[in-house]
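Exercise 7. Given the components listed, write out the predicted structure of the assembled complex. Treat all entries as one system.
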Amino acid sequence: MSNIILLKSITKMYQMGMEQVHALRGLDIEIKKNEYISIMGPSGSGKSTLMNVIGCLDTPTSGLYELNGTNVSEMNDNQLAKIRNKEIGFVFQTFNLLARSDVLHNVELPLIYGGVGSSERKKLAREAIERVGLGDRIHHKPNELSGGQRQRVSVARALVTRPSILLADEPTGNLDSKTGDEIMSLFDALHKEGNTIILVTHEADIAAHAHRIVHIRDGIVEKDEIVTNRRVIQHHQAATA
Amino acid sequence: MRLFLDETREGLSIAFTAIRANKMRSVLTTLGIVIGIVSVTLMGTAIEGLNRAFNKSISAIGADVLYIEKWPWGGGQNWWEIRNRPDVRIQHARAIEKNAENVRGVSPITGTARNINYGRKLIENAIVVGTDEEFTETSNVNVAMGRFMTALEASGGRPVCVLGSDIAANLFPNESPLGKVVKVGGYPYRSVGVLERQGSFMGMQSLDNRVYVPIQRFFKEFRSMRGGSLSIWVKAASLQGLEETKEEVRGIMRKTRRLSPKQEDDFAINQQDIIIGAFNQIGVVIAGVGLFITGLSLFVGGIGIMNIMFVSVTERTKEIGIRKAIGAPKRAILMQFLMEAAGLCLMGGILGIVISFPLSLIIDQVLPTAMPVSIVVIALLVSILVGVISGFLPAYRASRMDPVDALRYE
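Answer.
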């Protein structure tokens, strides 16, 4: 199967006060279509920087990044914005929903910036919201929803553009373990439907949902392992747990 | 195109939500713009009033009239040379009347200040104008009651007078002035008519506080024929032919004065356009200074908007990060905040017009005017412009934010 992500000798340096920080020091990763992969690492390992680079929020200082066959390592801000809009679905630890907008508007927002017409947009947004099981909360504001529901909204927002990858940064970090499990089972199901999922986490049991775990330390890949004992939560378990 | 429309609609709805979410802050910020727009529109209305008053006064006298006088309007020439010119006299008026073809009317004008009384009612220092029967033609004034002096009365120097409307109203509050004998400077005159009301202009002596008498009588009773220079009003046959008339009159004057071709004119032919030009100059200065001063308050209001937009951008750093993460281009973020600023200012502009409209009606009592539609449109456009200008820096800063930093902002 073809690579959806190709990272080759990626380095990232930035200035922090007087100090130069080498966050990534020549890192190589390949990710194939429909892979389910976790990126793990302690804080300060360069994990967040890597996520920003993969998510096209930031460009590498040097190295090659091909996303879906396109070289994105030297794109300008507006080109990157377009790539983020079309190719990447973000799920954040803190949900990052617009507080003053309802569920429907939050989910259709990427389509607005993607230039999708109003009726098509509403239809796609409703589908995504129903997919994450919030069809009856469509006009609720984020503060009227529970943490788990908010994270589902943000998953719906990530899905709505049918991106090449879903990029989840500690998606269960702000949830209790039960709702965390519900969210993880949602990711498992989305993977089965053909989505490519990248989980960034420092929790081993969350990482164990993936097929493959990449360990990052000091800005390079420390270990790249295939998961043998995958942790899969069955839907009925999640519901009864 | 649709992308742009959708982004615009999104920007508008964000702007509206943001303004509504901070009602108190929005209202206070907008106050600066409201005050600015109120002062600018009122100043514009007042300037409009000045122009109207001027044009009214000008058209009452007529733009197609030449004024042959000793002194040129507007000055600028050698004072001594002009002072030593011969006076303009009644025979010059006769010569023009007799020889000019492109004229509709010629009237000699002279004047002085005298007390006027009827019985016990007294008007001090009214203007007494000596002229002839063609004055109604050259001055464009209509008779409201009775008639003007006849040619016979004018040439015979009969003791008749025509009253200005204020004089008539003050001397004869309850009766008709026609046929009554009033004393002008102590001499009896029978009043034969009252002129229409003309109004005054910019604090000048009221045109209605005048009495018109035959010029021959004037010379007998108020000032001798040699006692000063006249003004001869010549109404051209048409406004288009004004220059032609001017040359003709000039030729007649030179011939009467026996000037050799080398000599310069020793008289002035004045025209309204000199006054109009002078006034327009003053008007531009008044308008410029007035609008500049009132514009300052708008400027201060704009600074307030800029300040609050910086606050708004900082407050919503996280939101900007989210929007950027899911693919909002710089343009969309820029538009979002520009629209918020422009929306705030437009709100202020509309409010300002709503407030200044009744105030303009008060101005109307003092200086007849009306808020021009153009000033309403300009005020709204200016307020949007102020919003866009003062919102630009904050919006630009927002659009340039790094998505990673913005997302991390708490």
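Discussion: Chain B has a mean pLDDT of 87. The two ends of chain B are 35 Å apart (CA to CA).
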